[in-house]
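Please decode residue identities from the backbone states below.
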């Protein structure tokens, strides 16, 4: 997997882990807390409802969200460019997009074992 800015490139069917953190407007880390929810949503286009896949994280390690992408999440996806964002729903009821809509590129693999 490669991350370029906010764009993600990964090989179809690979298992990956993305560590997500949050900073306030002053650039200071704001740890995720119990009751927060982090959503990573991947779609063909930001303008469609159908999701390629969505991951939810509601347990955190040292204030960070670890988004685990499993083989099954992309194994049957077509190679190509998709879009994703990361949304934070806070325990206090606020909703914030912490990673704006960005490219999520699924690249072809060679080994299918």
């Amino acid at each position: 997997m490669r991350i370029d800015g906010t764009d993600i490139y990964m090989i179809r069917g690979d298992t990956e882990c993305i560590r997500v953190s949050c900073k306030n407007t002053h650039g200071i880390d704001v740890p995720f807390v119990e009751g927060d929810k982090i959503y990573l949503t991947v779609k063909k286009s930001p303008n469609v409802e159908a999701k390629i896949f969505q991951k939810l994280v509601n347990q955190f390690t040292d204030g960070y969200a670890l988004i685990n992408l499993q083989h099954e999440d992309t194994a049957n996806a077509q190679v190509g460019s998709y879009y994703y964002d990361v949304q934070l729903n806070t325990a206090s009821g606020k909703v914030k997009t912490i990673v704006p809509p960005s490219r999520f590129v699924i690249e072809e693999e060679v080994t299918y074992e």
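Observation: The mean pLDDT is 96.
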